[in-house]
Amino acid sequence: MRNLDEDNITRAVIGMHAQAGNVRLRELMTSLVQHLHAFARETALTEEEWFQGIRFLTEVGHITTGTRQEFILLSDTLGLSMLVTALNHKKPEGCTESTVFGPFHVEDSPRVELGGDVANGAQGEPCFVCGTVAGLDGRPVPHAELQVWQADEAGYYDVQYGEDVPHRARATLNADAEGNFHFKTIRAEAYPIPHDGPVGRMLEALGRHPWRPAHLHFMITAPGYERLITHVFRNGDRYLDSDAVFGVRSSLIADWVEHPRGAAPDGTHSEVPFYTLAFRFVLNPDGA
Ligand code: BEZ
Ligand code: FE
Questions:
Q1: Residue with CA at minimum distance from ligand 1 atom 5
Q2: Predicted confidence (pLDDT) per residue in 134-176, tens digit
Q3: Looking at ligand 1, which residue's alpha carbon is closest to its atom 1?
Q4: Which listed ligand is nearest to 189 at the C-alpha?
Q5: For residues 66 and 72, which has the higher predicted lDDT (pLDDT)?
Q6: Which atom in ligand 1 lies closest to the alpha carbon of residue 73?
Q7: Taking every annotated instance into account, which residue ranges of this chain make up the domain Intradiol ring-cleavage dioxygenases (predicted)?
Q8: Which atom from ligand 1 is nearest to the alpha carbon of 212?
Q9: Closest C-alpha residue for ligand 1 atom 7
């Protein structure tokens, strides 16, 4: 294997993987090499451009920490995360659609009772959320576990304020025996994804904005059903058709209904205007 040129180097590299014991790894790397080489050929990639790409990926690596995952942001903003979600969560008609996970989920969010306060001090306009979790057959899914998380009115998740800040605007709760849930939180607002790093510079160079439309994240699990990772998006948001990470699906858009100050759904008197949101989640039975 000598004197490789632009016409035979792809075959030579792929040939070197022929003995790989892991068949799936061989399949993935063969395809990756083919597409990478095709990209270089198709664009007549210059050495300077190749090195700029190396520098960019190096910066993505350097800024990445346990709480700042720039590689996932890169995948999100290139539409790869949403493509992988779409490929892996094809569901029967009627099931709630999945969307991107995002980098701001945490494992140990505070547990709240039904009707509890998810905001836990996060700033924002009051919002009362209720809904049901059902199966594809329309029957309620009893006691489904819901994890919910969102940004505050300034557009930040609690974890973006540093490690010493208590968990806010996120919680874990269980639906009741009839699949019903309700909780109090703050109104979801549009926010820019972290854009003070290489991915932000990439977006700017491409003439793209970093904003996501207002949304509330949900992860819903129940025995016998596929885990659902999704958002509910706020109807009317100006970024619904230009989400920086391509996650919007029409079926996930809902109304945040505005109410004047007065009697609130939890039986209290709200001194300020508040919002309500209702959403029905339909889970995909395992093996469907
Ligand atoms: C989020 O919705 O939390 C998110 C998703 C992708 C990138 C950044 C944030
Ligand atoms: Fe989010």
A1: 102
A2: 999 999 999 999 999 999 999 999 999 988 889 999 999 999 9
A3: 102
A4: 2
A5: 72
A6: 7
A7: 122-283
A8: 2
A9: 102
Look at the pTM and tell me if it is higher than 0.90.
yes
Cα within 13 Å of Cα(171), Cβ side: 24
Q: Nearest C-alpha to atom 3 of ligand 1 is from which residue?
A: 102
Q: Which ligand is nearest to the CA of 216?
A: 2
Tokens of 42: 């198709």
Start-end of CATH 2.60.130.10 domains in the chain: 74-283
Tens digits of per-residue pLDDT, 167-219? Answer: 999 999 999 999 999 999 999 999 999 999 999 999 999 999 999 999 999 99
Nearest CA to ligand 1 atom 4: 102
Model confidence pLDDT, tens digit, residues 29-64 = 999 999 999 999 999 999 999 999 999 999 999 999
**Residue 121 Cα to ligand 2 middle (Å):** 18
Q: How far is the CA of 82 from the centre of ligand 2 (A)?
A: 14
The token duo for 159 is: 């974890």
- CATH architecture type of domain 74-283: Sandwich (2.60)
pLDDT of residue 288: 65
Nearest atom (ligand 1) to Cα of 217: 2
Residue 110: count of CB within 10 angstroms of its CB: 15
